Each structure stands twice: as structure tokens, then as C-alpha cells.
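Subgroup meeting minutes
Present: P.N., E.W., G.H.
Scribe: E.W.

1. P.N. recapped why we're keeping a running log of single-chain structure predictions: easier to compare across weeks, and new members can see raw inputs and outputs side by side.
2. G.H. added today's entry (444 aa).
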Amino acid sequence: MKLQVKLALYNTLTKVAIILFTGLLILLSIEKISYNHIEVRLEDDKEETLKSLSSGEINSFLNSQKVYTDYNILKEEFITITPEAKYNPKTTNAIKFTTETRRVDRNIQTYRILSHRFNFKGHTYLLEIGEAIESVEELKSIIKKFTLLVLFIALVLTLISDLIFTKFLLAPFYKIIDRKLIKVNDPMNFDYEKIKTTTQDFELLDDSISSLMKKISNLFILEKQFIANVSHELLTPISIISSRLENILLHEDLSEGSENKMHASLKTLNRLKSIINSLLLISKVENNQFDKVDVVMIAGVIKEIHEELEDRMDEKHLTFTNHIKYIYSIQGNRPLMHTLLFNVINNSIKYNNPKGTITISDELTEDIYSIIIADTGAGMDQKQIENAFNRFEKFDTDEKESYGLGLAIVKSITAFHNIKVQINSVKGKGTRVKLIFDHHNQLH
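Output recorded in log:
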């Protein structure tokens, strides 16, 4: 999940929590405030009722010890005065509030009721004044729905606003990632232009990456110098020693034992020279010391490699089948592409079984071109597949000139050309290498 989305979700959740708490507080407060308002009105009605006890209508009911009842037309309010059986001169003026359901003239409603006992002319009476709370419940329901609506609208607006704000806030951060991390394939061509931002943290990140890339560029320059020095300081003496040994073999009378030792030394020197050349090739490819200006036709390169390796295939009685259907060309380095395909096909010969098969095919799916090189050789287990591209990783083979650098070179060249490599292999049944070409390099 992106940082922008995480920030937006965090801000939204915290605001939703605040809104929920506020909404709950409002609901509870509305109920309490409404009840308090009703109770104040009931107390005022009580005072007015007690002042009206001597009026003609109420007084006649009290004198006859009958229950006095009065209510309005909508039955939203009622007043009852009920005589008590015993006179209690110690009756206090305590007021009690309850919420009850009452039947008033065939109507059943829920009321907030004030209860009050009082003495009048030597008798004790219970005064009850009620007011319907249906309107309060309706108000609570309306407020609840309104609160939920406000919550939903606030949630949507908060999420949208946070996404917009975080996108604006993090725009420099994503520019730094895109321009100075993702698209950096060559440290020598790094873009040191500062990203415009008012956030100090992003400025520090930008400066740190630029500073780091300067150090890496310097190290690349030193490595290129080292490679050039190695090429001269190692390969030149090896070539000189090889030439001298060959001259000795041609012009000196040597015993058979001495000749064998000379041949073994030459073989060792050639092996050392081959290893150094392979390592230098890997380093030069990884340091982008090659150009990609050639138009490379894949089918043509494979045909050349087949002709070069035909004798080796015949030695193991291998069947080579070319099922390439497409004329596909890329913008790249032709010698490197030749080396890449040569190493893969050479491995399919090296690790194949006698009288085995090598099949080369291609496919074009959704503008993505792939070439598949399959053999019926020894195959690899999962651990060997994982380590296949490691340098000096060698597998069991009768090939004495194997140095374990072939697939390491393949890895470097495919990375240089933005080619993906997939290896599928089953121990004892063969190996299938798939090269997937980047459509940005295609020319077909």
C-alpha cells in the first residue's frame, strides 16, 4: 500500500472516530436536554396547578374526594389529582419524575410524568402531570439519521481531501523515486537537478541520494580504470608467456616429458586468459561500456550460432530443431547478443544427453516477443536453478573447459538489454530457457 493511501486512511479513520464520538455525545446530550426542558415545563405546570386549587372546577372535585383529570385535545398533556386514603400532615414537597406508558381516553402514549404529593384542606392528594415524549423520540431519530448522513459525507469528503492533499504533499517524494531511483540505470548519467519542494525532509532525501550517486559514479570511474589496467597488466604478460612457450616448442629440442609440461602450461595460460576475458566482459557490460546501436535480427544470430556449433552437436549426435516463425529485430549490441545466445545454446549442448534434442522456438503474445531454447539434458533441481547465474557455479558435466561463467555472462547481457530470463528445469528430463524481450527495444 502506498504511503499516500496510508496517510489518507489514517487521517480519515481518526476524523471518523472524532465524528462518531461527537455524534454519540450529541445524541446523549439531546436526550438529556430534552428531558430537562420537559421537566422544567412540568414544574411550571405544577406551580400553576397548585395556585388553581381553589378554582371552582378543581375545588368541587377535591371537596367530593373524586379524581380530577384534565388533558388537551391531542392527548399530549394531562393532569390528574388523586385523593390519598390517609391524611399525612408530614407530606413533603418532593418531586419525582418517571417515564411511563399511560392510557388517556383510549390513547396509549409514553409520557414524562411529574409526581407530587401535597396537603389541601386536611387531605393528601397525589398530583401527576404528564407530557408526551413522542416528539422527543422523533427528534432523536431525526438527529441520529442526520448524524449518520453527516458522518458519511464527512468520511467521503475527508478521504477525497486527504488523498488530494497527500498527493500534493508527496509529489516531490515520488518525483525523487521516479527520476533518481527507478530510472537510474547508469550512474554516470544521473540527474543531479534538485527536485522543487518546500519540505525539508524531501530536500534532505534528494541531497542524500545525489551525494550517494556522486560517490557511486566515482567508484564506477575507478572500476573502469581498474578494468583497463587489468586488461593491460594481466592479459599482456599472459600473451607474452604463451608466445614464448610456443616458440620454445617450435625451436628447441625437448624431451617428451618437457613437451607435455609445456603443453600443460599453455593450456593453463589459455584457461586463465579465458577466465579473465569472461570477467572483463561481465564488468564492461555491467558498467555500460558497450553501445546499443546495432539492429540485431534474432533469427539470423541463431542461424550463425547453429553453424558454429554444428560440429559439437554432431559429436553428441544431437538433433537440432529450429521452429522460429517471426522475423524479430531489436536495437542492441550484436556481439553481446551473439554471446548471450551462444552461451545458452552451448549449455544446451554441454549438459545434454547423447542423442538428445535441442529445440528453439519463439512466440509473440500481446506485442511481447519470447524465444525458448529447450533441451533433453541432465536438468537442474530447484537449488541449482536459484544458483545458476552465480559466477563460477559449475554443474556436473564432461566438459573440461567449463568455468562456471557462461550464465553469469548471460545475466549481465540480458540486464543490459532489458531482457527477462526464465529457467524451467526438471532433474533428469531437461531444461527450458525462455528469453522475454522488452517491447521498447523492438524494431520489427
